[in-house]
Amino acid sequence: MELCGLTVHELKDKLKKREISAADILDSCLQRTHQVEEQVKAFITITEETARETARVLDEKGEYPGLAGIVCGLKDNLCTRGVRTTCASRMLEDFVPGYDATVVKKLKAQQAVILGKLNMDEFAMGSSTEYSSFYPTRNPWDLKRVPGGSSGGAAAAVAAGQVIYALGTDTGGSVRQPAAFCGVVGMKPTYGRVSRSGVVGFASSLDQVGTITRDVTDCALVLNQIAGYDHMDSTSANLEVLDYTSSLVPEIKGFKVGVLQEYFQEGIHPGVKETIKRALLKMEEMGAIVEEISLPHIKYALPTYYIIAPAEASSNLARFDGVRYGLRDLEADNVEEMYINSRSLGFGPEVKRRIMLGTYVLSAGYFDAYYLKALKVRRLIKNDFDRAFEKYDVLVTPTVPTAAFKLQEHARDEDLLAMYRSDIATVPANMAGLPAISVPGGFVDEMPVGLQIIGKAFAEDTILRVAYAFEQHTDYTARKPSLGVK
Amino acid sequence: MVLPNYEAVIGLEVHVELKTQSKIFCSCSTAFGAEPNTQVCPVCAGMPGALPVLNRQVVEFAIKTGLALNCEIAGMSKYDRKNYFYPDLPKAYQVSQYDQPICRTGYLEIEAEEGKKRIGINRVHIEEDAGKLIHQGAITTSSYSLVDLNRSGVPLLEIVSEPDLRTPREACLYLEKLRSVLLFLGVSDCKMEEGSLRCDANISIRPRGETRLGTKAEIKNMNSFRSLERALEYELTRQMEVLEDGEEVVQETRTWDEGQQATFSMRSKEEADDYRYFPDPDLVPVVVDQEWVQRVRESLPELPDAARQRLMEQYELPAYDAGVLTMTRDTLDFFDECIRHYDDAKVVSNWIMGEMSRLLNQHNLEISASQVSPSALVRMLRLIDEGTISGKMAKTVFEEMFTTGKEPDVIVKEKGMTQISDESALEPLVVQVLEANPEVVEDYRGGKTKALGFLVGQVMKATRGQANPKLVNQILKRHLDKS
């Protein structure tokens, strides 16, 4: 197999044995990108030159600790010093940050070879990457289908072999949902586990940087490098970070697995339901105790999310006003007109929709009925999870109720809610701040289906172990997309 | 100013910039007067992805202030976003405290005309300052404006009084007292001209005897104590005239125009903004436990009221002197330092309130910037006591000390200002003066004792003021009374 189709740990082995160089990996990924990028459109910016320089310096030294020499990509809402960070928005089309996000600093300190910035739904709002202001990304398993979103570019690039792993962000499922659609592993750590400093904010109380990798081992390896307390982020947790590779044990005998019933009722694709049921049987075969469970308030998670996330977004995105950076309408006659025109031109339809929604729910007279109530419901959802975790080690759901949908399938305004429902099973983990991982759980009509495993706060090790054991007892990660690496 | 039929109801909203080294959410300097946009980082410039990290010193200063204002201190310090668009506000929201201010329900005592009066403090809360716009010419005709973000993110306290003030004078006394408390605490330098102390007023009037409140106007842009008093006086008259004309006062925000000495409507309540306050999800609430509050309480310095009391009791100073000396911490420190080496408190007080404050005002300086040290003042007072210089000469010496920073002894020596207290040197001069003014001598002997003053003056003149006037007086009298 070509190098670009291997995992982080496989490549690390080869580097260690001096079978290959960092330049070899990079060449393979670049070649692959030249072949498929026209079709996949995963990237917004490719930083070939700096990637080559990093690889060259590494190969000169000939040492490859940590993630050194492994090619990766970054979702384009992670600030990169000197490299434009667009959030897939016209608003920031030419915005070049003077600073790195903490996670980017950490990868750079590791001498990771960063190949570029990946496509996404504008400002991470969307579930298909069709809301990128530049172009949609396509699913490597079927180019007529979406890769999911908002980290669609990241998931597609990993699936298509353009990068070995990628970092995305997950506010309501934006790492896990595209990972599920693209047949790769997506992890959203506990809120506070990974620094948000330098991550362009969408909904601050929900946003978390996540990993997209080809298997669970890679997930642990990458998480090891980005997790940890950061004094630049007040919401970052000052807790010890384990070596997550120590949780890669292929055995879950006696583990208690709660299956959230709510996600097997209406709205789920029958094929997805079958696939996940099979996955659960597999877990039972492996010795886990699998039980059905129902959380009374979880049905409110999605509507509550669509109050809290837009509310925070309406405030977070207010800074894009054309005054200091970003798009500015130069024709305006006065400040007010400049604001209105710049924001009208700079933001796309979904971002505008959410800003309006968020502004509305925070307005005088509506605040109590919407925002305040949503915060209370959020607390109830969190309590539901706390109670469930008194009994279970992990909770599982299908990551998404369907496999990847077709481009334009939810393009009409009337179909918007159908797209929002795509996040129905992923949103609760964000609402409660819990870690969750999506692993390949099978296939429906040749398209991958994701199995979501949710854990207690800061119990990334537990969900990694369950995910790893499941992966070791199945062969879904081995299967590659039609556009995949031969 | 008295309105016979009406009573004013005034409340003040005071903003003070806190004297922390760094800004509230980043490590940028808070120093005033730097080149525009040189004290700016991604956080205080509102760059994408930049996150705030609270400076705990700000909370400590807020607790300090709350305790000095007899407030209840909240157990939790929570932060909210106040959303609005303005080019000097880089994030398009100001981090502030909305429903849970750090301090509530306190009071401040002022010396009102009718005696001591307690002015309620409704709340004290923490927030961040915005940047500053520099317009090309007037704001309305400016073709462009520049943004300076040096001030963006400087910590502020907003101190809101209850509507307990009844006259513009009281409002001024309240603000002066508040300023001296803040200066004593060392939490702000309270310079109105640099904007580190800013004041808005809510003012309404009502017929005397009425208990319900009238419709208020909010007055902004008062940049000195004087303009606060003037603006409130203007506004009282305006509202009274509106009512006398049978019309109603409109609830609105008005701005004080210093040039025209009048207030003008800025916007009415119908146009009031909806700030869409909500808890800032980028900041975690800070727990303020009793231990912390207790620690701050124990570290509180002497406050103006206590200092005033001390000066009156310990040094028997008049209330007026004690009031002036406790206006600022620096003035009190200066006095206290003098009094450690000099016994006569009233003399020290006179010099500080007299020559010192005259020269400070004239040069627009604070006492901390004065070149005269307490020890130099004490040394000068000793020179008077020793008879080396006269009180009159001392004024010249003091002015020289003030402008050059030289020691009094050096000045006296350089200027040859030593007082002539040698009787044998003065005797011939006295004789000369007597001989030159026979009519005056006659007048004196005829009973016009005032004539003595003229003769003393003549001797002083002949010695260019250096003669010891007491001694001249004695010698003259001896000669005049001789025959």
Helix and strand layout, with pairings?
The complex is a heterodimer of chains A (486) and B (483).
Chain A: H1 8-16, H2 22-40, E1 43-46, H3 48-61, E2 71-75, H4 102-109, E3 113-118, H5 152-160, E4 165-169, H6 176-182, E5 185-188, E6 209-213, H7 216-226, E7 256-260, H8 270-285, E8 289-293, H9 301-316, H10 335-346, H11 349-362, H12 368-391, E9 394-398, H13 416-421, H14 427-432, E10 436-444, E11 447-454, H15 460-472
Parallel strand pairs in A: 2-3, 2-4, 7-8, 7-9
Antiparallel strand pairs in A: 1-3, 4-6, 5-6, 5-10, 9-11, 10-11
Chain B: E1 6-17, H1 56-68, E2 72-73, E3 76-77, E4 80-83, E5 93-96, E6 103-112, E7 115-128, E8 132-135, E9 145-148, E10 155-161, H2 168-185, E11 197-207, E12 217-222, H3 225-244, E13 252-257, E14 262-268, E15 278-279, E16 286-287, H4 290-298, H5 304-314, H6 319-325, H7 329-341, H8 345-363, H9 374-385, H10 391-404, H11 408-414, H12 423-436, H13 438-445, H14 451-462, H15 469-482
Strand line-up across the major sheet of chain B: 2-6-7-10-1-11-12-13-14
Query: What's the overall average pLDDT of chain A, rounded?
Result: 96
Overall number of domains of chain B: 3
Q: CATH homologous superfamily of the domain at 3-250 and 406-478 in chain A?
A: Amidase signature (AS) domain
Unreliable segments of chain B (pLDDT under 50, ≥5 consecutive)?
Answer: none
Please count the beta strands of chain A (DSSP E, at least 2 residues each).
11
How large a portion of the residues of chain B is in β-strands, by DSSP E?
Answer: 15-25%
What's the helical proportion of residues of chain B? 25-40%
Q: What spatial form of chain B do the alpha-carbon principal axes imply?
A: elongated
Give the integer mean of the pLDDT values of chain B. Answer: 90
Helix content of chain A: 25-40%
- Specify the structural class of chain A: alpha/beta
How does the helix and strand content of chain B classify structurally?
alpha+beta
* Count of strand segments of chain B: 16
